[in-house]
Structures are given as structure tokens and as C-alpha cells.
Amino acid sequence: MHVTTHNKPLILITEFLTLFIGIPMLLFFTASRVGIYMALWGAGIYALVVLRRAPDFSWRRLWLGDGWSRAAQRRAFCRFVVLAALVAVITAVAMPEHLLQFPLSRFWVWLLVMVLYPLLSIVPQELFFRSFYFARYSGFVTERAAGLLVNGLVFGFSHIVLNNWIAPSFCAIAGVILAHSYRQHRSLKWAVIEHSLYGCWIFTIGIGWYFFTGNWRH
Q: 101-135 b/e with 16+ CB inside 10 Å = b?
């Protein structure tokens, strides 16, 4: 899908800076936790409205994309296993008191998060940061290698609203990985699944606090 304004690059640049830089900065200084989630779903809805304007839009194509080879899926899963092990080691060394504390101490809440977090948080994130980003700015930044880096950086930057350095840093790296995969399959389904693997592991291993509550001031 391609939803662009090729003859008006200034519009794309202004929109990009507003959505990916301006709004996160505004939220950082003004928003509460409720405001953050309202903005998240607002971004998802905006992304869907814009995507539906594509001449070749279809729900099936949005969800399934171009397909993802088994070999690419295996590489993505192996990458997740390696990074998940690395995060576990870092947590065990730097924050041993948090290691696996969420599922061990609050199992039913943890289980609820495992179910609801992908639906309520990851779906709108992937709609906005992957489906919308790659369709709206196709040929503008996304088809270049730098486009993956930009996607990772803006994804990480959006997490400044959590008011700690861990979430933006981790998410910038994850954003590049997710963007790399998305450029292969263009599938919201696979984007949500891969994002869910990383996100649910972060909550399970014990550092989900930095990605959910952060250091709220309101």
C-alpha cells in the first residue's frame, strides 16, 4: 500500500515531524498515563484512516502483507532467542531483585498482561509505526537503509513519555529490528507477533515497569 503526496514533500515532512517528534515531546511535558494511551490509540486510528485512503487498500493485505518466508521467520525467531537471553543476563546482573518477579509474585495479573498487552498496546503501535510509516513515506525514507534506522529512532523517541532512559534505548534497537522484518513481509499480523514476543518477554523477565508505568509525574 502507498499513501503519499508525491507532489507535496513539505506536507510529508511537516506531518512526519509533528507526529513522530512534536507529539511525543508535547506528551512528555504534559500528559498523564491516561493521556499517553489516548494518544496511542489516536495514532492507531489516524494511521488506519490514512491507510484506507490507499487505492489498493484491503484488510487482507494490511493483515497478511506480502508473506514471510519460513527461512526469514526462523531467522527472526533465532534473533529473538539471542536477544531475549541477553536481556535476561543483563537483568540478572544489573537488577537481580526484579528477575521474573512479575510472573512469580503476581501470576494472574501477569497472565492478563500477556493477553491484553498485544491487543491494547501493540496493535495500535504497529499500525502507526510500521504499517502507516511504510505506506505513508514509501519512496521518501522507507526504501532506503536509513529508513530502518529512522524508524527505530522515532520508535525509541516516542517512549520518552515514560520518563526513563531504558525504554527509549531498548525500543530504538527493537524498532530497527521490527522495521527490518516489516520491510520483508509488510504484514500487520507478523509485526504484532514479533513485537509481542519482545514486549511480553520484557514484562516476564522483570523490567516491564520501565515500559508501562515509567516514572510518572501526574
A: bbbeeeeeebeebeeebbeebbbbbbbbbbbbbbb
